[in-house]
Specification:
There is one protein chain. The chain is of the alpha/beta class and about 350 residues long. It has helices at about 20-30, 40-50, 55-65, 75-85, 105-110, 130-140, 155-170, 185-190, 215-230, 255-260, 280-300, 315-325, 330-335, and strands spanning about 5-10, 65-70, 70, 95-100, 115-120, 145-150, 175-180, 235-240, 270-275, 305. The chain folds into two domains: about 5-155 and about 315-335, Rossmann fold; about 155-305, Rossmann fold, CATH 3.40.50.1400. The chain is globular, with a radius of gyration of 19 Å.
Length: about 350
Amino acid sequence: MSRGILLANLGSPDTCDAGAVRRYLNEFLMDPHVLDLPWPLRRFVVSAFILPTRPKRSAAAYRAIWRDAPPGSPLLHHTMALAAQVRRRTDAPVAVGMRYGTPTLADAIAELAAADEIFLVPLYPQHAASTRVTTVARVRALAPQPVRVMPPFFDDAGFLDASAARIRATMAPGDHVLFSYHGLPERHIRRADPTGAHCLAREDCCAQPSAASTTCYRQQCLATTRALAERLGLTSHSTSFQSRLGRLPWLTPYTDQVLAQLPDQGVRRLTVACPAFVADNLETLEEVDIRGRATFLDAGGEAFRLAPCLNDDAAWARTIAAWHESPPPEAAADRAVA
């Protein structure tokens, strides 16, 4: 039986002009897994409050990080480069698809038409409805052949070892390390809780594994931090969440606020790592390395370093190739996606 590899990432606009960004944001935000409102209300919120102003601001941010050679989105460039590295390490066909934007997931599935089975690798280490669930559901709806899904890999040794090596190569002695993860609305965390009563019920709800652990994004982020801090032998580190949107409560503490506060807490030298991402993108390159750097230095920080994402790291590519050779059991949450 032949098994093709589909590397799926979230996506980027096709260009960094406001029109392309508007089309991308409309597709992204109209996904009910992302903005979990009834369709009429979701359409109203997106059309009336987000699309009139946000595309212009986001286009300016994309222009700040858009690649010149080869031109285009860093996220797409790094994901394509990773696919090339994986191809060198396996005989399987490898395709790239984006949940939003191009190349589409349908394009990737068509590229793997000769495969008897698709091994889907959603390139999101932690479980979340707005990343994994929507991607798995879309691939399963489109693919004519069986789909086997790589489970969340936040605790996978290959992922953690490669990530730790990236951070180790970036940080300097004495640096505080801030692990910044993409944020989620608190209601997404509660909605994913199979018990209906555990997540965010108390401050230390993620301290120990529970029935909610397999679908709790926050618990998996904190587990990633613990595992990386142990591998790096860190004595000074913290965790925060970035990229919040709107006025509803999101996971805290917020990265921008933490960066402004750290110098007053005695942190002058900082390395930031973003282990919710495996490819550098708008959130790492513009939000953290440009705006976050300015916030920290303006607040009194002296040195700021951003650890690159895994991108097309050779050890990371070997890890994915090894997953393909011996796929781990699917997560129950992924099996449940129709």
